[in-house]
Write a structure and sequence with these properties.
single chain, mainly alpha, 1 helix, 0% strand
Length: 54
């Protein structure tokens, strides 16, 4: 492999693994809740007037 190919491979690996590391860090910092839901509990059938066909 040429030097250019090795440099491009290293950069690609750093981008992929860096993105994975940032994603894991973000999830661990947010406590594992989805973005935007504020950690709210999922709705139950009582929330919708007792309907169970959700």
């Amino acid at each position: 492999m040429s030097t250019d190919a090795i440099v491009m491979m290293v950069v690609a690996m750093l981008v992929l693994w860096g993105g994975l590391a940032l994603a894991v860090l973000n999830i661990s910092r947010s406590g594992g809740t989805a973005a935007g839901d504020g950690g709210a509990e999922p709705p139950t059938h009582e929330t919708y007037g007792g309907r169970r066909d959700l």
